[in-house]
Model the fold of this input.
Amino acid sequence: MKKRYQVLSLVIWNWVGLQIVTEINHYLSIWGLAVHLDMLWIVFAGVSLGKRVGLAYTFLFGILADAHLGGPHNLWLSIYVVAWGISCTARRVVQYDSPMQIRLFSVLLQALTLTFLAVALAGGQADTFAYWQRILIEGGISMSLMWLFSAPWFRLQHRLLLTLGWNPFDEKPGG
Amino acid sequence: MANDRTSLILRHPLTLMTALLAVWWLLPLGVKAFMRLTFWEFQAPSYYATSHLHDLQDYWAARVKSKNELIGANIDLARLNAAYSLRNQAAEATEAELQRLEELLDLPPLPEHRYEVARVVRRDMNAWWQRIIIRKGSVHGIREGQAVVFRDGVVGRVSEVYTYTAAVELITSREFRVAAHFAGDPRPVQFQGGLNASFHAPTGEVSTVPADKKASLTEPLELVSSRLGGVFPDGLHIGWVYQLEPGADGLFQSGLAKLDPELQSVQEVAVLIPLKPSEEPDIDALPPAR
Done:
């Protein structure tokens, strides 16, 4: 299978994940809650795929997410590309075969994203207790879920590519 | 030389990332809007499929109910039908009276709407934006800015329209502002959504309230929509105001409006589609002021 189809398969795989999270948020809205697991879709591309392939994946997935999720135009594309850049830079430190490091890194990156969103999109709510309380509750739940699911999701993405005949860990970084 | 430069860019992911974002941000807005629209329409069938799965889930949930429960629900519906028939008669009488007064005073007719009922595909509500996606779009006559209501009052305003789907900005959204008034008092006030704590009913802010208005826990004020903004018909329920505080200028008051918790679990809404396009009033045709 050509690499472009393998990348496309990865996009579809993560897009299904995004749909599941959206569906969870649909039901959580009854309690005024939402979970944010965006880094599940990006960390694998940043840490283990080649730079060109990883960026192509992130760009395509970012445009899909921008259309799918709410918020200002280009918000998710920009966040995902920046997160990919950070993940790519951190690959010297983060070992892709260490679930603990993947977990820690994903949680940290997600916390960074949430903090950015909370500050940048606060608007007139920044001085209200209700806003920060909601951010803290959602952040806490999201981080716990990220800790639980980041390593298995990372492994599943790797297995998907292996099934398609591509082991990205064997490749020279930078390709 | 060129190859060296390319490999230098490739070696530094942050440079690569900045270059890509710069190219993307420099693209004309039209191209980006077109891509967003295309990618939305590309994903829309999955929204449709998910929504139909929700319907199927509701159907099977209803199937497991016992006969006694269904008979009970049927009796409740019959009572509601009787109540609504009476209310329909009263509404028809009011409508006739309104028409008579309009003719008598030579007033322009009030804008009329038809209701396009739509299922909610997805609720997308977080601390930053509050919107729902509905299963009706431009082919059903839905346009941007139209009012959206449900059984308990105002839901929001159509913010984006696609072929078979549309996004609705909820009144709980921080960006949502609308003219309103209190029931029984035509003086306009301003409503803005936005304070949505977890595990609590959503709230909004009401401002420019005249200084003589009083609200308390035992005697709350009902906030209803006003036709001043040109989007909503008059008198649709928005929320309840339990407390008002004087503003810094002393002329007006402001307070919190408690909105309906059902907004967070809304499943079906109706879009108000104007029957006639709004026209500028012909000043010469109006009766002379006395």
